[in-house]
């Protein structure tokens, strides 16, 4: 196999020689052309390497931030509020807040993990953004100030009727374009992030009473389209 830098794959600004590639000391499996590349790759490579500490949900959050994707890891969604962000807008604002924190202000995942463990995540996020000039704080921080319950209540179970309310709201706000009535598909709010057993909240307006079969749900934008024909 051709040796290449695990981060820039040879496309860094400067030429490097294969002979100069240094092997990752953790796993001895991948190579880097420079310490910059090794550092930049760590947010991803930590999952394939042998890190000196256990991987935590802040690591999953950081990877999602750098991929510009909503986290999918269930415990991460619980720990950092994504399970309590119901609309696509709330989810994307929350991701935007963490992008500011991790990618722009460069707070390391292990610091964020420490904040959460000590129960000071909300306070520390505020303190961090207040330290930088107001004009550089962007739009996500003001949104967060008005919605801090999403993070402060993260990980706490949702009352059943709250979920139903949100389900009804979602039903109105999310067009059923991807569901197929001919195949008796309905859209349901899937709550795998809140409930490790994969519990679903059925949208009551459909009037369908068949049991939810975990196996045949298809994930779509964080929600599920469920085939109820059987
Ligand atoms: Zn490189
Ligand atoms: Zn490694």
Describe this entry's structure for a reader.
With 230 residues, the protein is α+β, with helices and mostly antiparallel strands. It folds into three domains: 1-52, no CATH class; 57-152, no CATH class; 160-227, no CATH class. 39% of the residues lie in helices and 9% in strands. It is built from nine helices and six strands; from the N terminus they run ββαααααααααββββ. It has helices spanning 35-45, 57-67, 74-79, 88-104, 109-117, 121-131, 140-146, 149-152, 160-173; strands spanning 22-23, 31-32, 185-190, 200-201, 217-220, 223-227. Strands 4-3-6-5 form a four-stranded antiparallel β-sheet, with helices on one face. Strand 5 and strand 6 form a beta hairpin. Helix 2 crosses helix 4 (88-104). The longest helix has 17 residues, at 88-104. The radius of gyration is 21 Å and the shape is elongated. The termini are far apart. The model is unreliable at 171-178 and 187-223 (pLDDT under 50). Bound molecules: zinc ion (ZN) (2 copies). One zinc ion binds next to loops. Residues 5-49 form the MYND-type domain. This is MYND-type domain-containing protein. Keywords: Metal-binding, Zinc, Zinc-finger.
List the SSEs and their pairings.
Layout: E1 22-23, E2 31-32, H1 35-45, H2 57-67, H3 74-79, H4 88-104, H5 109-117, H6 121-131, H7 140-146, H8 149-152, H9 160-173, E3 185-190, E4 200-201, E5 217-220, E6 223-227
Antiparallel strand pairs: 1-2, 3-4, 3-6, 5-6
Helix pairs in contact: 2-4, 2-5, 4-7
Bound molecules: zinc ion (ZN) (2 copies).
């Amino acid at each position: 196999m051709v040796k290449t830098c695990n981060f820039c794959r040879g496309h860094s600004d400067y030429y490097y020689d294969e002979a100069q590639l240094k092997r990752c000391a953790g796993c001895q499996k991948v190579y880097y052309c420079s310490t910059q590349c090794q550092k930049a790759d760590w947010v991803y490579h930590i999952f394939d390497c042998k890190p000196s500490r256990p991987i935590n949900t802040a690591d999953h959050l950081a990877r999602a931030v750098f991929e510009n994707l909503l986290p999918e890891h269930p415990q991460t969604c619980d720990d950092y509020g994504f399970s309590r962000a119901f609309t696509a807008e709330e989810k994307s604002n929350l991701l935007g807040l963490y992008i500011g924190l991790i990618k722009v202000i460069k707070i390391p995942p292990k610091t964020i993990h420490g904040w959460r463990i000590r129960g000071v995540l909300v306070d520390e996020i505020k303190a961090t953004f207040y330290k930088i000039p107001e004009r550089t704080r962007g739009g996500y921080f003001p949104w967060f100030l008005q919605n801090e319950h999403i993070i402060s209540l993260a990980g706490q179970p949702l009352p059943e009727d709250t979920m139903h309310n949100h389900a009804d709201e979602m039903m109105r706000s999310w067009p059923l374009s991807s569901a197929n009535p001919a195949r008796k598909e309905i859209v349901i709010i899937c709550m795998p992030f809140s409930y490790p057993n994969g519990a679903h909240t059925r949208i009551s307006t459909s009037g369908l009473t068949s049991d939810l079969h975990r196996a045949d749900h298809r994930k779509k934008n964080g929600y599920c389209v469920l085939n109820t024909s059987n």
